[in-house]
Write a structure and sequence with these properties.
240 residues; Nucleotidyltransferase family protein; GlmU-like; single chain; globular; alpha/beta; nucleotidyltransferase; 27% helix; MobA-like_NTP_Trfase
Length: 240
């Protein structure tokens, strides 16, 4: 089962990217000639996603105008300009648009260059709704550019996850996942984080992970852009 719908988290303030983000939302910052938002949407399109829900809050008109020209996937805007809802709050607000089937979540401010079979396709192949509520895409520290904190999860032999608490043997959450909407049953409205649901799934033995193949890139500050662009060039050269 390949998800046909995705939630693209694009509502953040991008404070660390100032002064660039004084005048534009972070998802529209370009890396190697392509906006961060397009890096994600192109990956979703290649994975067969036909509909992407994009949430907006900061300078929303710019994102709405930008995606209007995009043909695939079809873009539906979830407007959060009244209140910033964080990762989970934004998804809960968008649930009526997302439907009852498992869907992708991607962060609009990180991206990756695949090596071999596309990571989102591999994520769909690894998904098993019978034993998973959430399946995270992961990467290791050596395959990441711009990541300046520790690891997030330790992976059991069967792919089940637990918090790594920074253990260098752990892996990084790479900003993409498949989730089943049942995890948001009785979820509160308002601002709250996806980490709450990660921890609930860990407690239930239903949080799993898949290590991506390729190079993952996050761009936190303006001075990180040259390193990100160099990483793109290097990863693309290896992928050829």
């Amino acid at each position: 089962m390949k998800p046909k719908t995705a939630m693209v988290l694009a509502a953040g303030l991008g404070k660390r990217m100032r002064p660039i983000t004084d005048t534009m939302p972070k998802p529209l910052v370009k890396i190697a000639g392509k906006t961060l938002l397009d890096w994600g949407l192109d990956g979703l399109e290649a994975a067969g996603v036909t509909r992407a829900i994009v949430n907006v809050h900061y300078l929303p008109e710019q994102i709405i105008a930008y995606v209007a020209a995009r043909r695939a996937p079809k873009i539906v805007i979830s407007d959060e300009r009244e209140a910033l809802l964080e990762s989970a709050g934004g998804i809960v607000k968008a649930l009526p648009l997302l439907g009852s089937e498992p869907f992708y979540i991607i962060n609009a401010d990180t991206f990756w260059i695949d090596s071999g079979k596309p990571s989102l396709e591999r994520l769909a192949l690894a998904w098993d709704a019978a034993r998973m509520d959430i399946l995270l895409m992961l990467t290791d520290l050596e395959s990441a550019t711009g990541h300046c904190v520790g690891t997030d999860f330790l992976v059991a032999p069967d792919g089940a996850l637990r918090r790594s608490k920074g253990d260098p043997a752990g892996l990084i959450y790479a900003g993409a996942a498949i989730v089943h909407p049942r995890i948001f049953k009785d979820a509160p409205t308002g601002s709250h984080s996806l980490n709450i649901y990660f921890d609930k799934a860990i407690a239930a033995g239903r949080l799993f992970g898949m290590k991506m193949q390729g190079h993952w890139i996050t761009v936190g500050t303006p001075d990180a852009i040259p390193a990100a662009e160099a990483a793109v060039a290097g990863a693309l050269a290896k992928a050829v």
